[in-house]
Structure formats: C-alpha cells, structure tokens
Amino acid sequence: MSNNAACLPDGIRTASLEPTRANLNYSFGLPGGPYCLGMARTVVRRLLSAHGLADMAELGVLAASELLANACLFTPGRDVSLSVRWRYGVLRLTVFDEHPAHAADVGDACRARRRQALATLDAVVNACGGICGLAAAEGPLAGSRMWVVVPREAATLYARI
Ligand SMILES: [Zn+2]
C-alpha cells in the first residue's frame, strides 16, 4: 500500500482536469452500423457542451452525422473512427473508414460519388466559413478520411441558415 503512494503525483490540481476548449480531444472507434449515428450525435453534442462549445453543437452534430453516414453507406459493416478536436481556434471532426482501395479509374468514380453524397454538408460548411474534405487515408492507414473544420464563428453563421 505504501509503495503505491510513490506513484501518485503530489498536489494534483483538479482545476486542470476540467473540460475546456483546450482539452477537447476525443477519438472513438465505432462498429460502423447506422445505429451508431444516433449515439455519435448524442456524444458529440455532450462533448461540445461540456467543453464550452455548446453554440457549435448543432453544426458539430450535423457534421459528425453526415461524415459517419457517408462511411456507413460506402463502407457498410466495417469499423469507423471519429475524432473531435479543438485546435488553434477551430473545431475539427474527422472520420476514418476502412473503404477498400480501387484501381485509379474506379477510385475516381467512387470518390466522386462519395463527394456527391457529402454535397449538402459541404455547402453548409462552406457557407459557415469552414472546410469539408474527403481523401484517401495516408499510410500506414488504409481506407478514407473525411473531415470538417469550422471556426468558432461558424456557429453564428449556421444559426442564420
Ligand atoms: Zn469505393
């Protein structure tokens, strides 16, 4: 018992353990079924609210839901991951899926279909001053990476849409 005490740091400052924008940094693995979308929406809303970004919850939930829906639609039955981060004054949501690699011409057509499926989200995010993207995941990861990056003022702009 007394040996374990040496492993505990002295003077833990509980104030530093509070959720703030600076420590909004979560990554989740999800089974990838459509039922995950509702759970992810709930989680993203709670995270943003707890970390002082409640005004961004509506847009964040939309982005997470649409990115994950794209992954579930084009890569059914495979695991996906979602990360929610605040860095340098922007909210970043990223989804990785396990979409299979294609030959170049098939890959271009597939990417075009996936971008079309993201067109509404892309338009909304652009109108809010953000960026929506889709690309192949970079090695050593396989699959695809989709992301939305929005500045804080995007919440105000989204409320006006
Ligand atoms: Zn494909």
TrEMBL record:
InterPro entries: HATPase_C_sf. Gene3D superfamilies: Histidine kinase-like ATPase, C-terminal domain. This is Histidine kinase/HSP90-like ATPase domain-containing protein. It comes from Streptomyces netropsis.
